[in-house]
Design goal:
Blueprint lengths: L5 E8 L7 H11 L3 E11 L5 E6 L4 H7 L2 H6 L5 H17 L14 H4 L4 E10 L3 H9 L12 H6 L5 H11 L8
């Protein structure tokens, strides 16, 4: 089976009010075969930086066995204990021996855990974009490749007429800190 483009999304929550809406939307996307949540972690970081990690998933039992804990391995959280860390290190060493550059270093490195503010919670979602498989394959057949990707800020969408300034402030507040901004 071809794996679609995979994205790690890190969402922060001040005083989380979970009512099942996020899980329900992920389930809807899965039912439509648009995305698959490969793995998900809830991370709670106290003011001193201590972490509490909980594994979340909407995978079937067979998918969970096949995929294991990928987010923890990707960002360096050994939630499967020493055995999981050793298995991940062995798999990574095998790929590195074949000349594959696994993780960016220096200025290009992304320290997901450091980005989570103290006293907050975060959901780390490793999502496979099923909808993008045919597009990705067509791009590859045309000898194309990804140069960059990013989510576009709501404020940038004001400049091209897709949002009003008021909509952009509201969306930015929802997407970033949960507070209104004076941009």
């Amino acid at each position: 089976m071809a794996i679609g483009p995979v994205q790690l999304i890190v969402l922060g929550f001040d005083h989380p009010r979970f009512r099942g809406e996020v899980i329900a939307e992920l389930e809807r996307l899965r039912a439509n075969d648009a995305v698959r949540v490969i793995d998900a972690l809830a991370v709670y970081k106290d003011e001193e930086g201590a972490l509490e990690v909980e594994h979340l998933s909407n995978l079937t039992t067979e998918e969970a066995i096949e995929l294991g804990s990928k987010v923890g391995a990707l960002i360096g959280l050994g939630i499967e204990g020493e055995e999981g860390m050793a298995a991940g290190a062995l798999a990574g060493a095998e790929e590195a021996a074949d000349g594959v550059r696994l993780f960016p270093e220096g200025d290009d490195a992304w320290d997901v855990i450091a980005d989570i503010p103290g006293g907050t919670a975060a959901a780390l979602l490793l999502i496979e974009h099923h909808w993008a498989v045919p597009l990705r394959d067509a791009i590859m057949r045309a000898n194309g490749f990804r140069i960059s990707d990013a989510f576009v800020s709501p404020f940038d969408l004001v400049a091209i007429g897709l949002h009003t300034a008021e909509e952009a402030r509201r969306l930015d507040a929802m997407e970033t800190s949960g507070t209104t901004t004076d941009r």
